[in-house]
Amino acid sequence: MGFSSLFIHRPVATGLLAAGLLLLGAVAYRSLPVASVPSVDLPTLYVRADLPGASPETMAATVATPLERQIGVIAGLSELTSVNTVGGSTIVAQFDLTRDVDSAARDVQAAITTAGGLLPSSLPAPPFYVKANPSAFPILTLALTSDTLPGSRVYDYASTVLAQALMEIDGVAQVEIGGAEKTAIRVQADPGALASRGLGLENVRQALANATVNLPKGSLDAGDRNFLVAADDQVFEPAAYRDLAIAYRDGAPVRLGDVAAVQAGTVNNKLASWWNGRPAIIVQVRKQPGADMVATVDRIRAALPRLAAWLPPSIALHITGDRTRVVRAGIGDLYVTLGLTLTLVILVIALFLRRLWAVVIPGATIAVSVAGTVAIMAATGCGLNNLTLMAITVSIGFLVDDAIVVIENITRLVDQGVPPLTAAIRGTRQMTFTVVSITAALLAALIPVVFMDGELGLFFHEFGITLCAAILVSAVVSLSLTPAMCARLLTPSPKPSGTGTGSEAASRRYGAGLERALRHPRLMLLGVGLSVAATLALFAALPKGLLPSQDTGVIRGVTEAPPDISFTAMRDRQQAVDALVRADPAVESVTSSIGVGLWNALNTGTLSITLKPPGERPGERDIATDAVAARLRQALARVPDLAVYLSAVDDFGVGGRMGRARYQYTLRGPKLDDLMAVASQVRDRMRTLPELTDVSTDQEANGLQANLAIDRASAARLGVSTQAIDQTLYDAFGQRQVATLFTEFDQFKVVLEADPTFQKDRQSLTRLYVPSNAGPQVPLSAVTRLDSGYAPLLLNHEGQLPAITLGFNTRDGIAIGQAITVIDDAVRSLRLPPGVTAGYAGTAKAANRSNANQGWLLLGAVVAVYLVLGILYESVAHPLTILSTLPSAGLGAVLALWITRTEVSVIAMIGLILLIGIVMKNAIMMVDAALMAERVLGLAPRAAIVRAATLRFRPIVMTTLTAALGALPLALGLGTGAELRQPLGIAVVGGLLLSQVVTLYTTPVVYLAVTRLRGRKAALPVLQPAA
């Protein structure tokens, strides 16, 4: 008993198995994580170290380099970058897929510990790591505002109440707070008042360090009782600090209040954030790798009312950005698209077969196949997202193809008078090899997609798994449930065999046309050759891209002012930008920040712009995010002395560094000065390229610097050490954290600096005094010479070498592949000096690799299909007949892409690969039937292929139409997020429409040509009778 007969003879068991699979699919569906696209999170960690007051050069040399040397030897490390700003270093370590992020974290912690002995002793806290990619866009952004409380108090509540609770929520990896810093006691000393008393800033620092401590004090036993020993050794109020005696002169105390102002402030008073123009504390939440984005946001939203109740009534909590809003809309629209696809496919079946049960059976096949696919998705760790639902949607068209092939053959036999049970057994047996061949060809075509490597491999892995699962389940269901239902439900049609005059007339006209085509084989073969040439030429001419631009409704911006700008001036310019952005009618909310942070230098700021949903944007209701960004660029160009770089946020982002634009080009070299000169040349050359916009560099070497040249002979004569000079400068201008206050919930710092009025003029440096070994204070001007210079505000490393990254966007209508070509040509013309290397980073790197591999991807699919078909047919020749369907399909696809001005993105390439599997169904059905006619009926090759083509005409047309209509809703670009799916639909529909017409005539011609070439000596495979 064959495989299908086992199910045909046991209808109850078959029905229960189908019901069980439906139930399993429903249960599995509820467990699937929901996201916009599959996660492409490589194991990534970043290490953060802070040293207030340190220059970027100091941070790079003394902090980043020792850490990089230890982290750089960890196994499995794929990319190591660092960003060094004033007072901070951020080192990003990205690992390959062979490393588990928790295991990598242990290695990173060990590296931090090993490097500890080489780090500056003045670090206020040890470096720490976070298991997250700092360049990833947050899934939820909150803003805390208050009309009465200062920003530092709001920050404290955000840090101690909100952030801690959010971190406990399942799926949350990091909670980043911006806009202010922790509360601190700020001591602003007057160097002149100190000098008049024979004191210096070092005296103040030592006094503050000794005045507030928190050390263990032990316990004592008094008889039969034990007492813990405690003391009020911490000073919390500014007023108490003012009474501290820092020295005695002439027997009288010199109190801190006599020489310094003491007030409550923040650790860093050069940070600011706004939400819709109001001062705010911004809280950004990032998810853990692989976590369900929608479920994580739902858990956060459910917790927010409880967390808001913990805050004072004077603090308002706002949700300013929710990445799942677009995800939810896109997934919902995909379900509508899926329903439309299913309706179109069922209508095609009804049109051709014109009987109720012949329509119900494929519908049941689709339902069970989808349920089985969902179950496999859950078992393999896939989720619900744009790509997996796109896979299910497009697969509907060819999920039903196997069932159509079987049902059509059984229906034909039933209409010829064969009893339904016998027709089901015989018809399924005749088509089993065809179904297996079709399934094997489709799976072979998808091998390159499933095993694609790198970030794109991660991105499309779930898509490939879902498609393969759908194809396999469909084949099994079509050979089990479908014939079992046909055996019990199909009845002879009251009309003659076929669908009446329409189907038979079309078949007769096709037969006549086929005879004419067979009389001109050379002309037909020439047409096949020309279609190959045209396909290759047009494919080469089409622009190449990575992924289509998505309308996520979020724009990320970076503002950049001249390097010597003050914090106050930067704040004014940032607020001007904020106001102009909020004036755009498409903008819903804006968060804006300035101040030194993970990526920011003193002269840069950030913007996060959330747009209204597409249907609510005034004017052009369908205006896309990219178009809004272009409009904002024009408006923001009016802000003086400020460059603004905007880029739409998409769901595919790779790399560990956030640039000023979507794409990045990185230069590396051992000598920073040479690297800066080369980067300046490359930047200027890129700005002349008409294909690019927003060309920028993350390296600015024009920050003003006050240089002190130490007269070492004078310093030695006066007893002044270099360390004393550095300590005094750090005390005055480094916002030095000199003491720590411990509370029940947090720790706070005591910060020492020179009086703000003393920091407004670089000549103030000459009025500082430094201690000498002999005791008296010595004017700094006596041992140093002051001059001016320039210094970088930010230093980057990549692979432990100095690196400069150039950011760029492409202009409207320019694909990233075109941009890469012109950039490569421009850089080659500059002839980089020895030692300087250049390459793309992040998304541009992935695009460059993708463009280089596109041809190999298609070739791999074709070769895989040929090998599988050769094995199945035990022939090296007949697979060529089947593969002859590809040129016309490829030509139709690239023509459709060209007509619709769609670039050849990876999505379009997936469509082309799918076409390879889909269009071969026509040839497989013809070749199988022809080979059986030759072997069983003894027909000549010409008669056999003519009989096979006319016999399989109806199922060929049906399967092609169902596949095309299955992809049609994708091609039309319906719903939110359709930009990502549309190229695949366009390629599939265009390829199927042309191949449907052409291959019906070219396949028989190629079959006869191949038969003549191979002769008649080759053994034919053992097949079941065709009729």
TrEMBL record:
One of its GO terms (cellular component) is plasma membrane. One of its GO terms (molecular function) is xenobiotic transmembrane transporter activity. It comes from the Bacteria. Keywords: Membrane, Transmembrane, Transmembrane helix. The chain crosses the membrane at residues 334-353, 360-381, 387-410, 431-451, 463-487, 855-873, 906-932, 953-972, 984-1010. It holds the Pfam family ACR_tran. InterPro entries: AcrB_DN_DC_subdom (IPR027463), Acrflvin-R (IPR001036). This is Multidrug efflux pump/multidrug efflux pump. The lineage of its organism: Bacteria, Pseudomonadati, Pseudomonadota, Alphaproteobacteria, Rhodospirillales.
